[in-house]
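Note to self: keep these together.
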Amino acid sequence: MTGQDRGAIRVVLADDEAVVRVGVRAVLAAAPEVEVVAEAPDGRDAVDLVLAHRPDVAVLDIRMPRLNGLEAAAEIRRLSVGTAVLVLTTFAEDAYISRALGEGAGGFVLKTGDPTEIIAGVRAVASGAAYLSPSVARRVIDHLAATGSRLGAAQQLDGLTNREREVLGLLGSGMSNGEIAEHIHVVEGTVKVYVSGIFRQLGVRNRVEAAILAHEAGLIPRGTRPAHGPLPQPGPDSAADP
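Structure:
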């Protein structure tokens, strides 16, 4: 049962700067369904608190002592406690983004961005969807293009079935597995099978990369809006909407 099923999204917040923790906690307090259940000044304590509280979301700064945010995300993923990770980042930390994708982060928001993006990001990753601040999204897209990851995946789109392409487009619109299942009238377990197959065929590691690819390939169906917040819109060099 997720925090949203219970009517509350339980959050563990970790940042080594006390003033940042105060600010983020104040932002999250504006969302009545979000509850910060514990705070940590470093990654090691964050992992321990996740294990103790089993929150729905861990909001992690990247640069922290003992364990940094990437190491903490990897440890949380290894623990398999069902806690999603939302990463707090800055413009100076672009090099960390691809690593965080590989460690299972479900979203990225800027500390210096619109505070409402933090709330939107927490809601999204708690539901199993992906979330990127628009400015962060552009950097992820550029990174994937520079490394050839996006190009290599795009070349395999023809290998997807029509249903898989539909699921990828809905995933890219910001829908969770449950929302996709309701939209295409199947059980959630079937959607999980589709998503796993899509990841494998496209060579992507997680929902963030898959969502970006869906946007870049023009797979987002018209009239479909992100469930909890914006993912990157196709750029001027992207394929047109179908």
